[in-house]
Structures are given as structure tokens and as C-alpha cells.
Amino acid sequence: MRAGYLGPKATFTDIAVQNAFPDVERIAYTTIPDCFKAVKNKEVDMAIVPFENALEGSVHLTTDYLFHETNPPIRAEIIVPIQQHLMVHPMQYNKWNEVERILSHPHALAQCHKFLHQQFRGVTLEQMTSTAAAAKYVSEHPESNMAAIANELAAEKYNLQIVKENIHDYDFNHTRFIVLAHNDTEILPSLTSTYEKTTIMVTLPSDRAGSLHQVLSAFAWRKINLSKIESRPLKTGLGHYFFMIDINQTYEDQLVKNAIEEIESLGCQVKILGSYFSYHTQK
Questions:
Q1: DSSP annotation of 212
Q2: Measuring CA to CA, which of 90, 108, 198, 215 is 20 to 30 A from 228?
Q3: Is the pLDDT of residue 189 over 80?
Q4: Active-site option among 67, 177, 219, 243
Q5: Where is this site: Essential for prephenate dehydratase activity (predicted)?
Q6: Phi, psi of 222 (to 5 degrees)
Q7: Collapsing DSSP states into helix, strand and coil, what is residue 195?
């Protein structure tokens, strides 16, 4: 089995893969679109990408690729606790509080906004494709006085020194990662799940008042619990959106099927991304 993930090695996505699929061959890709392409073309058996962070919300690139592209279904989600640390090259350790640049993924920078504003106001913040990419870059440029925000595994992998631990703004910092695969996947048995969910994307009929209310009512009167609803631009003009909805039941439930049939009868377009179990890891 081959698993493609957002790399390089030691990203939080890499940690999610190691926790859920310790025996698979891990293939690192530079970007989220590269991961989607790899699993779509069957270069890998599965792709694992970040989907949503508890502090910063959805990863929009993932959401848009799920909607606009044809992909294999979501087979599982893995929820991983996130701890962000500030790290520097050992050669710069004595000057870490005078860093000129801080590098990380945009979500990581946002998760640490308060710390950065209070401790490094005016310091240049540079966005990278992942937290591990930032750590790798810092390790390759020992002469530059800069820092990365990444996890403990990245510090170990790229021989960096952590100078400030747990710099994220809020304690409850978790990220959802989704597993896309053409076939069912086997999660490590030690990771247990207590519920199954279904994710759909809905496009409303044009210029019809109350359409979203009717969509939500189809679930409400059947007492189907929704854990998330989010809008994203359709990219066809201002005011045009699609809606991503998480349903806390499996699609095989007849009530869920009936609700989706009712929504479609209203003229909505529905894209079912998958029914899958949610798993939590401890690290």
C-alpha cells in the first residue's frame, strides 16, 4: 500500500499517516493538488490531506478540489492534536529572539497570531507549503537568522532547536485530515471511532428565495443532526456559492437518502463525498 500525503517528511499530515497507517509506504507530495492528482491517477492507493483546523477553519484549497474535481470518495477522517513550536537552526540559537523572518504554513502562522504579534511584531512572516517545508528550509540555510513554526517531529527530522513550545493561541488545537481512496482502507485497530458521518456538497437553484432554508428543513424534520455547514464561492461570479454539509449519520441510513432525494427534487445539485468513520489520535 502506498499513501500520498502533504510533505515533506514530518508534516502534521505525515504524523496523521503514521498514526493511522504505520505499515504503508509514505509518499510525500509538495502541494495538496499534487496529492489529489496522485490518488486520482492511482499513483498511490490513498491520499491524506488536511481538511479543517479547530482554530482557523477549513482548508479552502482542499474544499475547492473536493467540489470542482472528480475524486475517489472520503474513506476516513483522522483528527490529530496540533502543537506548534518555534524553532531555529542551532547556529542561530543565541540570537533566536532577534530573528528577521519566521516561516510556516499560512494556517500555522494564523494559529500563532497572538504570540507573533506580542513577541515578534514587525518581523517578516513568510508562507510555506507546509510547516515541515519551513523547518526544512531553515535547516538548509544555517547562515540566516530565521525561525520556523512546526511540530516536534520536524525539529527532530531537520535538526532544529525548539526555543518556544506550544505557541498556538488556544489550547484546543486539532486538525481534521481526510483519507481519499478508491477502495476501503484499514485504519490501525488501536484507533477507535464512535460514529460515522457523511459529507455532501450542495449547489442551490438560482434565484429562488428560501432555498437554503428548504435544504436544512429536509434534515431538520427528520431529526438528522448536521455538525457543519459552510459556504464557498462557486467561482462563477459574486454571490454564487456552494455549501458543504457534514451529516452525523451514514448515507446508508434511509432517512439520509430520503433527505437527499428531497433536496434534489427542489432543483439542488448534490455531490456526495463519502460516508466514513472519524478517528482520533493522541499525538
A1: H
A2: 108
A3: no
A4: 177
A5: 175
A6: -90, 0
A7: coil
Query: In the structure grid, which three cell numbers stand for residue 198, read together?
Result: 457523511
- Alpha carbon distance 151, 114 (integer Å): 18
Bond into 90 cis (ω within 30): no
Q: Which one, of 185, 196, 200, lies nearest residue 75 by Cα? A: 185
Query: Where does 2-82+173-181 sit in CATH, by number?
Result: 3.40.190.10
CB 28 within 8 A of CB 9: yes
175 is catalytic: yes
- Residue in the block written with cell 496523521: 16
Decide: 21 and 1 in contact? Cβ < 8 Å. Answer: yes
User: Under CATH, what is the fold of the domain 196-276?
Assistant: Alpha-Beta Plaits (3.30.70)
Q: Find the mean pLDDT for residues 171-196.
A: 87
Please write the tens of the pLDDT for every residue from 95-151.
999 999 999 999 999 999 999 999 999 999 999 999 999 999 999 999 999 999 999
Q: Are strands 85-88 and 74-81 parallel, antiparallel or unpaired?
A: unpaired
Delimiting residues of CATH 3.40.190.10 domain(s) in the chain: 2-82+173-181, 85-164
Domain 85-164 matching CATH 3.40.50.11710: the answer reads no
Residues in the chain: 283
3-state helix, strand, coil in the chain (%, to 5): 30, 35, 35
Q: Say whether 177 is catalytic.
A: yes
**Per-residue pLDDT, 207:** 66
**Cα atoms in the Cβ-side hemisphere of radius 13 Å centred on 71:** 33
Q: What is the DSSP string of 95-142?
A: GGGG-SEEEE-HHHHHHTHHHHHHHSTT-EEEE-SSHHHHHHHHHH-T
Contact between 179 and 78 under an 8 Å Cβ cutoff? The reply is yes
Amino acid at 32: I
62, 130 in Cβ contact below 8 A?
no
